[in-house]
Design brief:
Distance between the termini: 29 Å
Oligomer: single chain
Helix content: over 70%
Number of domains: 2
Shape: globular
Structural class: mainly alpha
Largest sheet: none
Length: about 525
């Protein structure tokens, strides 16, 4: 008896999705092929997101002042913490569970809507104290306006979860790109109209509102009326621990900007936020799409340790191979990168960028732990670790504050570097994932990145002789990529790994079942 061909499988899976948008029946079949295609869609979308982000930074940095960015970053540093309550980790719970009912997801939807509304109202209430904290009356209204986005996020949480559960990444990517483009256009119109820092608020809200509407349209799912469903307590427990972890992580991501804004000033906060955004944008834009694909796939394999470990190793290697060289070349070419992206007048970003570099490099490998905690349902253990980690990170930033924004960045990087190995050890303990899985996945890209970095630093004089920053950046990046590729292939097993990537690319053809 022969297996059905690809078109037959896709038609069957499309039929299954039409009858039940929550069903994952058939997803385990040819999971690698489906993941590769999904990853390709998302990576293409993230490439578009990077272009929109670069365009946003380049255009708005020329229409607005550093203080405008600083004001919104200072208000957002407090308000963003409320965003975790709009989801409470419930979208991930919908994705992670092997079985979930329509009644359960509808109940979670109404919980998310209520949480989003509550976060919005809390944001309104906190807006005046935020202005008092910073001693700047402009920040209260900004904080209140940004809070509206939490309601949009709460409404969109479960439709987004339905798309990710079904691994329909092309649809999600399309919605994301459209929403980013709408937000950017709205911000440009607002800036040209003379709205100043309010243009950045308009961008945030326009993006969130468009994304909310798009997720409903793309998912094809609508909630039923509120009703009590069985099994909700266990889902809420999973989501509660995950939300707690995300909340503390958001505090850690925000407290540096709060410290800089309060004790150094709005201009410094604007420089800091842009340094962080330029450095971490490549990490976010590369890791986020792969995590979007990997978590649902790994959740499907949680009862099959060997397949889980094999998929995990391949995924970590792809992340490391893409992210490590990207961050390394950005750090080496930091001065030219800042001048090309932000334009003149932003040279103060460079020392902050360099101080954040170690944390940026380590952030590329954050998936080593996040791809274990959530798919295996160990969010309680994740929460305990991040509580401990936050103490060290906040202490590092507080110690560095006496040296200004650069000191805060350096303190953050040092703390993250000291805690990374213990973080991995804590995560892997008690699981079937081993240290050898991590080591075998990252050693080639890590060593190839080091060789390429050394080569570009040695050739620094020749590259520096070029007059235009854009030319130096382009030549440096191309030279780094060439040395990296040659080094990767020259390492033991390098050609075999490259062949495996080529084999995966062969699966990248249109697939109606993944749209």
């Amino acid at each position: 008896m022969h297996e059905p061909d690809s078109q037959t499988r896709d038609a069957a899976e499309h039929s299954e999705r039409g009858s039940d948008p929550l069903s994952v029946a058939g997803l385990d079949r040819d999971l690698s092929r489906r993941s590769v295609r999904g990853g390709a869609f998302v990576m293409a979308g993230q490439g578009g997101s990077i272009l929109v982000g670069i365009a946003s930074a380049a255009v708005l940095a020329r229409l607005l002042d550093p203080e405008d960015f600083g004001l919104v970053a200072m208000a957002g540093a407090f308000i963003v913490l409320l965003g975790e309550f709009a989801d409470l980790g419930l979208s991930q719970a919908t994705v992670q569970r092997r079985e979930v009912t329509t009644a359960q997801v509808s109940t979670l939807f109404w919980v998310n809507v209520g949480l989003g509304a509550a976060a919005m109202l809390i944001g309104f209430a906190l807006s005046w104290p935020i202005g008092l904290f910073y001693e700047d009356a402009r920040l209260g209204p900004v904080a209140a306006a940004l809070s509206i986005g939490f309601f949009f996020s709460g409404v969109a949480a479960q439709p987004l979860a339905v798309l990710r559960r079904r691994m329909r990444f092309a649809a999600e990517t399309t919605v994301t790109l459209i929403s980013l483009a709408v937000g950017l256009l709205a911000a440009i119109v607002a800036a040209l109209s003379g709205l100043g820092y309010w243009s950045l608020v308009v961008q945030t809200l326009a993006t969130a509102a468009t994304r909310m509407a798009g997720m409903f349209i793309a998912s094809g799912w609508m909630p039923s009326r509120p009703a009590r469903a069985e099994g909700i307590r266990e889902i809420l427990r999973f989501g509660g621990y995950l939300s707690g972890s995300n909340l503390i992580a958001a505090v850690i991501r925000s407290i540096d900007k709060i410290l800089v804004g309060r004790f150094v000033g709005a201009d410094a906060a604007g420089l800091y936020s842009n340094a962080q955004r330029i450095l971490l944008a490549p990490v976010t834009q590369l890791n986020k799409p792969l995590t979007m694909v990997a978590r649902p796939a790994l959740a499907r394999l949680q009862d099959d340790p060997e397949r889980f470990r094999a998929y995990y190793r391949r995924g970590i290697e792809v992340v490391a191979s893409a992210s490590l060289p990207t961050i390394a070349v950005a750090v080496i070419m930091a001065g030219d990168l800042v001048r090309v992206v932000l334009g003149p007048g932003w040279d103060g970003v460079v020392p902050i960028f360099m101080a954040l570099a170690p944390a940026g490099l380590l952030a590329t490998l954050a998936v080593i732990t996040t791809w274990v905690y959530v798919p295996l349902g160990r969010t309680d253990r994740q929460f305990r670790w991040i509580c401990l980690q936050s103490i060290g990170v906040v202490a590092g930033m507080a110690i560095g504050l006496r040296y200004g924004a650069v000191g805060v960045a350096a303190g953050y990087s040092i703390a993250v570097a000291c805690l990374r190995v213990p973080a991995i050890a804590w995560c892997l303990k008690g699981t079937f994932v081993r240290w050898s899985d991590v080591g075998s996945a990252i050693w080639r890209p890590l060593l190839a990145t080091a060789v390429a970095a050394a080569a570009i630093l040695a050739a620094g004089g020749a590259i520096a002789s070029l007059e235009a920053p854009s030319a130096r950046l382009a030549i440096g990046a191309l030279a780094f990529a060439a040395v990296y590729l040659v080094s990767f292939l020259a390492l033991p097993g390098g050609f075999a790994r490259a062949s495996a990537i080529v084999a995966m690319v062969r699966h990248l053809r249109p697939n109606p079942g993944n749209r």
